[in-house]
Amino acid sequence: MAGNVCRTCGKSLPAAGGKPGRASVYCSAACRQKAYRTRQATSGGVQQLISEIERQVKGLVPEKPEPFYSGVESLSSSVRRLRSIARVARDASRTVTPEPVTNSGVTETGVTESDEAAAVRTSDEWSFADLVEPYRRELQVHCYRMVGSYDDSEDLVQETLLKAWKHRDGFEGRASLRAWLYKIATNASLDFLRRDERRPRPYGPSPVPPSDGVAAGSFLPWLQPFPDEDPEAAAESAETLELVFLAAIQHLPPRQRAVLIMRDVLGWPAADTAQALDLTVASVTSALQRARPALRERLPERRREWARGADPSEAERALLDRYMRAAADGDMSAMAAMLRADARITMPPNPLWFGGRDAILTMLAQTFDPASPAYFGRWRHLPTRANGQPALGGYVQRPGTRVYRAQVLDVLRVEDGLIAEITSFEPHLFPAFGLPLTLTD
């Protein structure tokens, strides 16, 4: 029975209804977000985090590869959090701080909303960073959904936290700290989109004529992938982080986009959404009614790659292993067996695309064949995850060299065990995915 109830509130889960995709473990978006925030919350501040990192370092056992890898992953996550806190505190210390309204100290954990407001208003750089850091990643995901770019989302979440620091004396606790930060982040994203208007464009002709009747989608040169740092959180939000969803919402006007994300993705009530966006409830309802059908028109009929209730890890690992071997060996038969007939490759920010299995194989055959003038070099790959999807970091050893250099980050959309789409991105984001920029023999 435990598998049929919400992990947050304990209510019964709705029936799956035979739809494809991963089974839900929460009854609503609100419960999903609450579970995420609980996992992210800090309980003891910077000193406790430093002590935890010290404990994790001492617990590493290099002689046992599997436990060692798990320990390093946990350590990396803790170090990222500490780096995030330090960055917020550093940037806050560089700004002119408003005069505090009271000299009382920062309150302890378990505060009420009014106490939370007092904690924010009277905080110094470190205590403020400790208060807002648990929300940093979800705020960046929110900004990423708004603008579709990892680089821009990093800048926007930093702008959000700096604005919150500079205007912390205006936080009165009428809404939660999280809601206040989301309002700042949403408005920062809307301001960004007003300054830097982005319109999807059509692709030009493909270098290889498309096959199987495949047509190009919209060209979104700003689209970038987002790393999955928390596998469970990524699984919960996979549908609204998949690249096909990100690409689809980029066609919505910015305010409609914000309303749809806050209402349908975050699960906010209409009144809270209206308050965050300085709109009326009627305006929010109207915007949502326009945004939903516009989004559905842009989404493929099937967007989920795994059967409901199935664990994708084994099938995913097998597929990635086959892909890496085929690329390393230049095995065109193995590559053909993994592609759907209507598969497609796009390469933002480059306006290149290839549509249909035959067209893709024609392109790959030239780059894999050492006798071809278009031969690129020897390939190696490392597996990772992006946007709740399997991904691979691709490295090339150019002829006459010994080093494999980062070349491309491929994000795969898989349907029925076959690759339906490959979105290939430039390699400057490798460090964000924990991938090195070079490999050696």
TrEMBL record:
InterPro entries per UniProt: NTF2-like_dom_sf, RNA_pol_sigma-70-like, RNA_pol_sigma-70_dom, RNA_pol_sigma-G_actinobac, RNA_pol_sigma70_ECF_CS, RNA_pol_sigma70_r2, RNA_pol_sigma70_r4_t2, RNA_pol_sigma_r2
Record's keyword terms, sorted: DNA-binding, Sigma factor, Transcription, Transcription regulation
Presence of the UniProt keyword Methyltransferase in the record: no
Domain SnoaL-like stretches: 321-422
Keyword DNA-binding in annotation: yes
Domain named RNA polymerase sigma factor 70 region 4 type: residues: 245-292
PROSITE patterns xref list: SIGMA70_ECF
UniProt-annotated stretches for the region Disordered: 93-116
Extent of Polar residues compositional bias: 94-112
A GO biological process held by the record: response to stress
GO molecular function list: DNA binding; sigma factor activity
Residue ranges annotated for the RNA polymerase sigma-70 region domain, each copy included: 131-198
The organism's place on the tree of life at top rank: Bacteria
Coiled-coil stretches: none
Record NCBIfam families: PRK08241.1, sigma70-ECF, SigX5
PANTHER family: ECF RNA POLYMERASE SIGMA FACTOR SIGG, RNA POLYMERASE ECF-TYPE SIGMA FACTO
Subunit structure: Interacts transiently with the RNA polymerase catalytic core formed by RpoA, RpoB, RpoC and RpoZ (2 alpha, 1 beta, 1 beta' and 1 omega subunit) to form the RNA polymerase holoenzyme that can initiate transcription.
Family: Belongs to the sigma-70 factor family. ECF subfamily.
Protein name according to UniProt: RNA polymerase sigma factor
Species name: Actinomadura chibensis
